[in-house]
Amino acid sequence: MAGCELSPEQIEKAVDFHGHWCPGLAIGLRAGEYVLNHMGRAEDEELVALVETDMCAVDAIQVLTGCTFGKGNLIYKDHGKLAFTFYRRADGKGVRLVFDAQRLGSPDSEFTELTQKWLKGQIGPEQEARLMRMREERTKDIMGSPLDELFSVKEPDVSMPRSARILTSLVCEECGESIMESRTRRLAGRTLCIPCFQAQG
Fold first, then answer.
1. Which of 4, 35, 120, 196 has its CB surrounded by the most CB atoms within 10 Å?
2. Cα 27 to Cα 16: distance, rounded to the nearest angstrom
3. What DSSP designation does 9 have?
């Protein structure tokens, strides 16, 4: 199988949404490409995505697959993994895609070291130029590689999430703001939102 088969328009749409071109966005584009090829696209809630990272890839996944936070069919689990699970509600089909992180560099690689310096604003012009070249090389590698070399394709390790629900709103008795019923906390007979509950110590 060849490299990326997405159209220039699909890629451009993801870049516009995310704001810049980078290896992380490329990872999401390729994960989204896999889903389009094997499961289709969600116009509403036909698909569900469970993402285990909050990095750039998730923006491309939203654009390509139609799984979004607002529709309730994109669920974030803070596991810090480049892993993306997708389910199709119509037939229960599911797949977990785990990106081969070694393609970005080992934890002690020059790329990782320069990236950390760049994120902290501790990088000189020459090192930054080298890092940008390395980022572009990795992005090209991700976009040009076969999907089966980029991702381990596994069975989902959790069951399909339930459909999005619209719940009753209650009012926090401390701040007066409206809250989804399932996110309320009770303290000394009062209904509180999570921030007000946590502020009680």
1. 35
2. 16
3. H
24-59 per-position pLDDT tens digit: 999 999 999 999 999 999 999 999 999 999 999 999
Asked if 73 contacts 164 with a C-beta cutoff of 8 angstroms, the reply is: yes
Structure tokens at 86: 């997708």
Domains along the sequence of the chain with CATH:
8-154 (3.30.1330.130), 169-199 (3.30.60)
Tokens of 132: 């940008």
Q: How many residues does the chain have?
A: 201
How many CA atoms within 13 Å lie on the side-chain side of 163? 8
The residue behind tokens 């719940």 is 167
Q: What pTM did the predictor assign?
A: 0.84
SS3 breakdown of the chain: % helix, strand, coil, rounded to 5?
Answer: 40, 20, 40
